[in-house]
Amino acid sequence: MMIILLFIIFIQLGNCQIENKTNATTTTTTTTTTRRYCNNDESCNDDNLCTNEKCDPVDGCIYEDVSCDDGNGCTKDSCHSLTGCFYKRVVCDDNDKCTDNICNPENGTCSFRRRICTDNNDCTMDWCNQLTGECVYQPVLVCEDYNSCTIDVCNEYKGCQFFNRTCDDRCVCTIDTCTNSTGCIHTPISCDDNNDCTIDNCDCKRGCIHKELPVDDFNNCTFDQCSHEHGITHTPISCDDNNDCTVDSCDISIGCINDQIPDCTINTSSNNSQNNPKDCIGENCINIPFCSIKDKKCFELVEEIKRNQTSQFPPTSSSSSSNYQISKNKEIIIISTLFLGTLTLISKF
What we know:
Layout: H1 2-26, E1 31-34, E2 51-56, E3 60-65, E4 75-80, E5 84-89, E6 99-103, E7 110-114, E8 124-128, E9 135-139, E10 150-155, E11 159-164, E12 174-179, E13 183-188, E14 198-203, E15 207-212, E16 222-227, E17 231-236, E18 246-251, E19 255-260, E20 265-267, E21 279-281, H2 296-312, H3 319-348
Helix pairs in contact: 2-3
C-alpha cells in the first residue's frame, strides 16, 4: 500500500514539472516561478540569454527577464534568447544633407540643425553642397574697385582691401601721376635750357644734364664758337701780320703761314702814304695795279712775270743795250700786269 502511494506522488510531481516547463517557454512576465525542485542556480539553466535563473528551495526555479535598458533614449532596446540584449539606434533623418540630425538621449526626440560652413576666412565664400552635404570654401575671385590707381587684395581677417598704388619709378626725369582710367603715368620732364650750344638730356639719378656742343671743326684756319643767337659758327681767322714783305696764308693743319718775300724791304720814307702806305722796295718788288703784294695770288703772278722776263731777255755785255731791254721789259711787264691786274680785280668780284 505504501509503495502504491509513493508511486502516485512521483507521477504527480512529474506531471507538474512538465507543465511548468511548458509554461516557462511561453511566459512573457518579468518574473516566472517554475515549481520544480532544484539543487542550485545552474540546475535551472533554460539556455535563454534573456533570463536570469536562480533556484529557490521552496518555490523551485525562478526566471527573471534580463533588463536591456541602456538608459539612452536614442536606442531601441530588445533582447534575443540566443544573443542577448541588442540596441538599435534611432535614425533621425530629414533627408537634407546640409542639416545635422540630432537625437536627444534623454527623451529620444529628433532635432535637425542647419550645418554651419565657415572657415573664418573673409576671403572665401562658404556654403554647403546640397548634393554631397560637404562644406565648400571658395576663394573670392575678384576684389575689384575698378580703380587703376589702387592695389586690390583680400585679407583673410578683413576681407577686400584697396591700397593706393605708388607710381614712383625712382627716376627724377619723370613726373609720376595716376589716373583711374590708365593707371600710372610717367611724363618726361623738359630739360631744355633754350641754349643752342648745349645737348640737353636727363639722368634718372642726377636729373637734367646740359653738355656743351663740340664746336671744333679741326681746322686751324677758323675760329670755332657757339652763341645763343647763331649756334655754332666757324669764322675764318686773319693771318695778316701787317707786313708787306710777307705772303700771308693759312694751312688747316698748322694755321697761319707768313712767307717772307725774298730781297724785300719796307720803304718807310714814302710820302704818298695815302695811296701806298707801305711800299715794297727791291728787285723782287713789282707794283701791280689793283693788286696787293700781300695777296698770295698776286705774289705768284709777280713770280711768273719775273721768270718770263729772265727767259725772254737774257743779260748782254753792252750796258746800253741792257738798259734799253730792261726799259722795254718794264713796259711789257706794266702792260701785262695791267691786264692781269684787271683779271685779278674781276676775279675778286
